[in-house]
C-alpha cells in the first residue's frame, strides 16, 4: 500500500528518500509542495518516521503519509502512526500547513487512517492534543474520536474501531 485516496486527498506513504527531502525542506523535481510545506510539525513527524525506519525497517502501513490535495496536487501536510500497534492499539499524529487548515482535510485524512487500522485488525486508535488547541480537538471529534483522558497540558482522545462491516465515520457537521 503506497497511497490512500479520499474524496479530496491522496495520502502517499513516504519512503526514506522523500522523508529526507521533507526534513531538509528541499523539494526534488516532481515534488509539488504548498508554499508553507513542510512546516515544523511535518519535520518532527517525518524525523520520527526516519528513526523508526532506521531501527526497524519500513513500518508501512503503520508509517508516515504525505497529505496531498487532489484539486491542485500540492503537498499540504502529513499524518502517520507513531509506532507499530501494540495490543490492538496504535497512536496517530497529524498536521497541516497553515494555508490548508480550516477546510476539514485533517479529519478526512484521519478517517482514512482509521480505516487502515481497522483493516489490520486494530480496535483502538489514540491521539493527544494540547488543551489549548481547540481546532485539533474539533478535528479529532469530527473524525470519530472521543476524549478519554487528560493531564495538566493535554487531552487524550481515542477512536474505538468496529472491525465488522461498519467503520468509524466522520461527523458530517
Automatic annotation (TrEMBL):
One GO molecular-function entry = protein N-terminal-serine acetyltransferase activity
- The protein's name is Protein N-acetyltransferase, RimJ/RimL family
Query: By its UniProt entry, which PROSITE patterns does this protein fall under?
Result: GNAT
Does Lipoprotein count among this protein's keywords? no
GO CC terms, sorted: cytoplasm
Known InterPro entries for this protein?
Acyl_CoA_acyltransferase, GNAT_dom, Ribosomal_N-acetyltransferase
Q: Please give the organism.
A: Pedococcus cremeus
Q: Which domain of life is it from?
A: Bacteria
Whether Hydrolase counts among this entry's keywords is no
Parts of the chain that traverse the membrane: none
